[in-house]
Design a protein that fits this description.
alpha+beta; Glutathione S-transferase Yfyf (Class Pi), Chain A, domain 2; 4-stranded mixed β-sheet; 8 helices; 7% strand; binds glutathione
Length: 211
C-alpha cells in the first residue's frame, strides 16, 4: 500500500488532488505540523528533511518533495496525461512547477506564514514581522503575475490539458484565498475552475473545507 504523509490545507493538498485525480488507493497519514510531528524520530526516519508531502511507494522508496512526487505520479501513470506530451513541453511544465513551489511558496508564502524563520532577533518585533511579511506578499504577487501569463482568458489550465502544474498552482491560490490576497483575474479564473473538478471538491471536503 502506498503511504501518503500530509497536512490538511498545506502544500500536500496539491498532491492529495493528484492522488484523487488518478483514483489511487493509498493510506493517508496525518502529520500535525503545528504540534511538531515532523521533528519526531518516527517521521525523521521517513523524511530527514522534516517536511510534507511524502509519498512512500510499495517498495519502500520515500519521495519527499512536491516536485518529485508529482513527476513520479505523472510518469508512472502516462495514460492520465498529467504532463504534456512533448519532452520540451514537459520541461517547461517542470520549470513552471519549480517556480510555483520554490518561489511563490518557498520564498513568498513561507515569509508570510513563518516570518520568524527569516529573523535573527530572539523575539520577533511587530515591525520586523511586518517587513518580512510585506516582502513575502511582494514575492507572491509578482509570482502570480508571472504565472498568469501562462493561462488563457478562461484560466482553465497552464498547459493544453490538466497537468500536475495545475495542482501546484491550486494550492498557492488556495493560500491566497485564505489570506485574502488578490489574485490576477486569470489566476482567479483558474482557481474557480479547479474548484469545479470533482477530485478537488472531494479533497477539500476530506481536508475539512466547505465550498
Ligand atoms: N520544497 C518542499 C516544500 C515542502 C514544505 O515546505 N512543506 C511544508 C508544509 S507546506 C512543511 O513541511 N513545513 C514543515 C516545517 O518546515 O517544519 C517540497 O517541494 O515539498
Amino acid at each position: 500500500m502506498i503511504n501518503f504523509y500530509m497536512t490538511p490545507g498545506s502544500c500536500s493538498t496539491g498532491i492529495h488532488i493528484l492522488l484523487e485525480e488518478l483514483e489511487m488507493v493509498f493510506s493517508a497519514n496525518l502529520v500535525n505540523l503545528m504540534a511538531g510531528d515532523q521533528y519526531k524520530p518516527e517521521f525523521i526516519a521517513i523524511n530527514p528533511k522534516s517536511t510534507i508531502p511524502v509519498l512512500v511507494l510499495n517498495d519502500g522508496t520515500a519521495l519527499t518533495s512536491f516536485q518529485g512526487i508529482a513527476w513520479w505520479l505523472a510518469t508512472a501513470h502516462p495514460k492520465a496525461g498529467l504532463l504534456p506530451e512533448s519532452i520540451a513541453d514537459q520541461a517547461k511544465a517542470l520549470d513552471l512547477m519549480g517556480y510555483i513551489v520554490n518561489q511563490i511558496h518557498g520564498a513568498g508564502f513561507t515569509r508570510i506564514f513563518t516570518p520568524e524563520v527569516y529573523c535573527q532577533e530572539e523575539t520577533l518585533s511587530d515591525a520586523s514581522k511586518e517587513t518580512i511579511q510585506k516582502k513575502g506578499e511582494e514575492i507572491v504577487s509578482k509570482g502570480f503575475m508571472v504565472v498568469a501569463e501562462f493561462l488563457d482568458q478562461n484560466g482553465e489550465y497552464l498547459a493544453q490539458q490538466f497537468t500536475v502544474v495545475d495542482a501546484a498552482l491550486f494550492y498557492v491560490e488556495f493560500w491566497a484565498d485564505k489570506t485574502q490576497m488578490c489574485l490576477p483575474p486569470k489566476c482567479k479564473a483558474h482557481y474557480e475552475s479547479m474548484k469545479q473538478r470533482s477530485a478537488v471538491r472531494q479533497v477539500l471536503a476530506e481536508e475539512g473545507y466547505r465550498y
